[in-house]
Amino acid sequence: MSYLINFHPSGGWFRWFDCGDLQGLWMLVNVVEVCRNTPSISHWLPTHEPFVVAAYLDKYGEFPDNLCVRISADYVEDRPTTPTWGLPTHTVHRWKDEPVPAADGDRKKSIACMSYKRGNKCDGCRACWSRKVQNVSLPVH
Fold first, then answer.
1. Which ranges of 50-128 would DSSP assign to H, the alpha helix?
2. How far apart are CA 86 and CA 6, in angstroms?
3. What's this model's pTM, rounded to 2 decimal places?
4. What is the pLDDT of residues 1-14, one digit of tens each?
5. Is 21 exposed, middle or buried (0-12, 13-18, 19+ CB in 10 A)?
6. Contact status, residue 71 vs residue 44, Cβ threshold 8 Å
7. 34 with 1: CB under 8 angstroms?
8. Which H or E run contains 31?
């Protein structure tokens, strides 16, 4: 996996799980290993498995700098209801340009994904990969 990611013409960006999620701590440990083996690639891992993330942080400490783990909310228009351990989050909103507030309730710390205006492509936007963006809110789809 590390070899394929390092040599794929992705432009330096990799999203884990287009559909699906972490199956357990063992899988997150493997994802982190791939991230460490691909230091020139920025990785983004959205997850509905916050307690797997908590178990990793408890046992191993921080994630590598090139991995942005985002805890996803469970329902449309909801902020994440589980602890996020200070990690960035993902939400889903109904109204295209009105993002759900960040986990702390501050709408200013949340940005609405505009990929629907670009044929469902990120193009130059890399907010999901940035730990500096507290919440990315996707339009319902």
1. 50-60
2. 29
3. 0.90
4. 898 888 887 789 99
5. middle
6. no
7. yes
8. helix 25-37
